[in-house]
Amino acid sequence: MKSCEEINDQLSGYLDEELTQGDSQKVDVHLRGCPACQKILDEMRLLRNAVAGSQKVEKLQDDQWEKIVNDLPSKASAGTGWVLLIAGVLTLAGLGIWEFTVADDVSTGAKLGGGAVGFGLLLLFVSVLRQRLISWRTDKYKDIKY
Questions:
Q1: What Rg do the C-alpha atoms of the chain give, in angstroms?
Q2: Are 42 and 48 in contact (CB under 8 A)?
Q3: First-to-last CA distance in the chain?
Q4: Between the N and C ends of the chain, which has fewer C-beta atoms within 10 Å?
Q5: Contact 27, 14 (CB under 8 A)
Q6: Band of the pLDDT at 89, cuts 50, 70, 90?
Q7: Distance CA 71, CA 130 (A)
Q8: Are both 98 and 120 inside the same structural domain?
Q9: 34, pLDDT greater than 70
Q10: pLDDT category of residue 145 using cuts at 50, 70 and 90
Q11: pLDDT in tens, 50-67
């Protein structure tokens, strides 16, 4: 007969029905004669059922998804947030560029290099923005719902 320690190592597999038939039968025999191991198994079952019950996620219906996706206050606050973020970044970038160009302690080469990097980033941004606008108008999948 197996010891309680050996059985305890197999209880999780027994509970999940992952043991071989022979090992499962040995655990069965041991559990019939050992109330301590039976108590551990019962506690494991309770824990597993509690965890399984907490993991259930309700599936939302299409009308519930529509309500969440088309919620006007959240759309408005998100849009306002993006506008404020972009305005802030552009303001800070503009002030930084202005200070960089009028600073006397910055060499002309550094100003030209910084200007080239800034202009290159601006061109990349405009390019990506243009591509997004073109694809937004011609995207045949934009009206597909989840």
A1: 33
A2: no
A3: 57
A4: C
A5: yes
A6: very high
A7: 28
A8: no
A9: yes
A10: low
A11: 887 676 667 777 777 777
Given the structure tokens 């919620």, which residue do they identify?
71
Kindly state whether residues 10 and 50 are assigned to the same domain: yes
Residues 45, 73, single domain; the answer is no
Here the tokens at position 53 are 């019950």
Q: Are residues 14 and 50 in the same domain?
A: yes
- Per-residue DSSP letter, 58: P
Mean pLDDT of the residues in the chain: 84
How many folded domains does the chain comprise? 3
pLDDT over 80 at 72, yes or no: no
User: How long, in residues, is the chain?
Assistant: 146
- Residue 44 CA to residue 8 CA, distance in Å, equals 11
Percentage, residues of the chain above pLDDT 70: 93
Q: Which domain holds residue 50?
A: 4-54
- Check if the beta carbon of residue 84 is closer than 8 Å to that of residue 95: no
Single-letter code of the amino acid located at 75? K
CB 10 within 8 A of CB 18: no
